[in-house]
Task: inverse folding
């Protein structure tokens, strides 16, 4: 393997809470190659969102090193796109203006890119709509287009489809894979849905909680587009589930000690 | 009373047959004021209530027509509107400016807000003597008195609007690499618009109220003066005409601001009643 796009070494992060120190992440090591689709899965409270926020530059105060193209991450910026659980569109801007946000839509090159992205996320005809007029899935697609306009080196997605119904979610997964296939944007996708993790990722990173550690990284060498009903998919899903259940047992043991 | 009377004139427009629902609702709104007017007219006509204290709607209408035809009403109204608008623009403009300044920067909040809050607590009537001493009874003292009233609703609501900006959207702005200037222009100010518009509405109302105070105290022109002059000659119908004009113009200005507000806030997704 060549030089990794993103490398995380000996990452430790704790929060100071009223109940004392909470170790959110412990000795996390991860290398992500350009063009990869990484899914991160783990029980709630395992620090998967924290990991993503550290990569984005939104959370600081950790030890260890996180580098993007060899440079330490100093803060948030357009090289690291971020999709939140909620769409977080600006409610006073139309779809196209949300995608452009701080960039002038009047500039021909930006206009053209915005129009292309509207097509890419399949929102043709809704350019002038306000966020309140969109469904959850549509709004999240606008958020994705907004991030992609800035041509990020890596797109970080924090349970972006968690609030959507099953049908919309399946559709959104297909849209995202389509974007990935066309743009080859490196993706790091946090989820708590095992099917989603196996369906989307090249590699599934399984986190365990308290402290948040990488339990296992499972490569998913199934060709895209994948079908959830095939036996090979189900075998890999079970494999991930097995690791996941071991995590659960650990958690129960922890819980029993309280 | 005066407001109800105005509602009659306003509802007349909506009475056009553009849907049965609207007509019924407009009719509902008319029921009370029209009923009161009819009752008032009857009671006055039969001398049950004093014509001196409660001139009948008919007498008031006659007085209105007389004042309108001599042009007195319009010249006074123009003077009053100019005063109220100047005061509103001065006070509201400064309120917006300081509200943004204090809302955006914690340091200017610490520096300015305590003093401004102190000034807010001084009743307008208490500063009237000072204003008259300083600026005489000319236009300056009146406009400044109105401006003082108009300043605070815009100031406070702009501040609240800016400080109420959703932190989650700030995070988005950071992720999207907004410059400090873009953060203000594209995020903080649009987010504050609903509150700013509320402040503008309140300020406009207060300007109108402040105008009455200013004109009743020391003036030789304006609707307020017309009323206090009429009071001295016990010309009650003119006082009523003044009240009705105040109410009508107040309603008109509020309606205009609401239309602007509706246009600016068309993105909003909230309960419409």
Result:
């Amino acid at each position: 393997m060549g030089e990794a796009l993103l490398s995380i070494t000996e990452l430790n992060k704790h929060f100071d809470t009223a109940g004392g120190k909470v170790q959110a992440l412990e000795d996390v090591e991860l290398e992500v190659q350009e063009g990869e689709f990484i899914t991160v899965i783990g029980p709630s409270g395992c620090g998967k969102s924290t990991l993503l926020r550290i990569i984005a530059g939104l959370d600081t105060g950790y030890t260890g090193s996180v580098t993007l193209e060899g440079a330490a991450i100093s803060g948030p910026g357009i090289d690291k796109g971020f999709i939140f659980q909620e769409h977080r569109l600006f409610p006073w801007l139309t779809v196209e203006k949300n995608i452009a946000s701080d960039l002038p839509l009047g500039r021909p090159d930006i206009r053209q890119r915005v129009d292309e992205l509207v097509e890419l996320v399949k929102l043709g005809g809704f350019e002038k709509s306000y966020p309140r007029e969109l469904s959850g899935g549509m709004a999240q697609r606008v958020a994705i287009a907004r991030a992609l306009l800035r041509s990020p080196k890596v797109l970080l997605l924090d349970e972006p489809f968690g609030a959507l119904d099953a049908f919309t979610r399946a559709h959104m997964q297909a849209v995202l894979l389509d974007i990935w296939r066309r743009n080859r944007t490196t993706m790091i996708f946090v989820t708590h849905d095992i099917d989603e993790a196996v369906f989307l990722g090249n590699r599934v990173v399984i986190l365990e909680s308290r402290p948040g550690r990488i339990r296992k990284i499972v490569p998913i060498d199934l060709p895209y587009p994948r079908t959830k009903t095939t036996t090979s998919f189900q075998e890999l899903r079970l494999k991930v589930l097995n690791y996941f259940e071991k995590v659960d047992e650990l958690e129960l043991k922890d819980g029993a000690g309280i | 009373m005066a407001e109800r009377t105005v509602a009659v004139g306003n509802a007349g427009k909506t009475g056009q047959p553009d849907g049965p629902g609207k007509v019924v609702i407009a009719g509902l709104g008319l029921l009370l004021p029209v009923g009161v007017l009819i009752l008032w007219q009857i009671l006055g006509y039969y001398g049950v209530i004093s014509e001196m204290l409660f001139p009948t709607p008919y007498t008031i209408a006659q007085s209105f027509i007389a004042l309108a035809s001599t042009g007195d009403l319009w010249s006074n109204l123009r003077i009053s509107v100019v005063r109220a608008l100047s005061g509103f623009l001065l006070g509201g403009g400064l309120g917006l400016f300081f509200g943004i300044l204090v809302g955006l920067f914690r340091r200017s909040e610490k520096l300015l807000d305590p003093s401004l809050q102190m000034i807010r607590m001084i009743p307008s009537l208490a500063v009237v003597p000072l204003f008259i001493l300083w600026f005489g009874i000319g236009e300056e003292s009146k406009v400044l008195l109105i401006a003082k009233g108009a300043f605070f609703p815009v100031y406070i609501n702009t501040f609240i609007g800016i400080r109420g900006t959703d932190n989650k959207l700030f995070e988005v702005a950071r992720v999207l690499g907004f410059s400090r200037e873009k953060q203000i222009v594209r995020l903080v100010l649009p987010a504050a618009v609903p509150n700013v518009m509320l402040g503008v509405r309140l300020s406009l109302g207060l300007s109108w109220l402040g105008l009455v105070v200013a004109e009743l105290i020391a003036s030789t022109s304006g609707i307020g003066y017309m009323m206090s002059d009429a009071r001295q000659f016990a010309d009650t119908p003119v006082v009523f005409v003044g009240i009705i004009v105040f109410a009508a113009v107040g309603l008109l200005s509020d309606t205009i601001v609401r239309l602007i507000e509706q246009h600016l806030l068309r993105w909003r997704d909230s309960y419409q009643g």
Remarks:
- The interface with chain A takes residues 168-169, 171-179, 182, 186-187, 190-191, 193, 266-269 of chain B (CB under 8 Å).
- Residues 75 and 166 of chain B are 48 Å apart (CA to CA).
